[in-house]
Amino acid sequence: MSTVARRAKCPDCRATVLSGLDEGIPVRVEPEPVDPAGELAALCDGRRTYGLVADGTLALRDEWRIRSGVGLKLYVEHPCGAR
To answer: Which helix (H) or strand (E) holds 65?
Structure first.
């Protein structure tokens, strides 16, 4: 189950984030979208990236979704949620 991403406060640092469920997994991302260069920098830093789908949900950007080239707004995992 995925839910619409909504503005919220990170429970750890109280920063504003977008928060939702991606296939049942809680997700918190930075509130401002990034360009493809920002996505690459985040991935190199070990942070996941997500695309904002038309229905308002966040979808993890795996290698297949990145290669597809589908034009979505890109968001970077909030550092408090990074593994």
So the answer is: helix 63-68
Instruction: For residue 59, give both structure tokens.
Output: 């979808």
The domains of the chain are located at 6-81
Looking at residue 41, its pLDDT comes to 97
How far does the chain reach from its first CA to its final CA, in angstroms? 22
pTM of the predicted structure, to 2 decimals: 0.90
Cα torsion 64, 39, 31, 27: sign: positive
| pLDDT at residue 82, as a whole number | 56
Instruction: For residue 36, give the 3-state DSSP assignment.
Output: helix
Q: What are the residues facing 14 on neighbouring strands? A: none
Write out the two tokens for 71. Answer: 């034009």
Q: Which residues pair with 28 in a beta bridge?
A: 19
What is the rounded average pLDDT for all residues in the chain?
92
| Tokens linked to 67 | 């290669």
Q: Which amino acid is at 83?
A: R
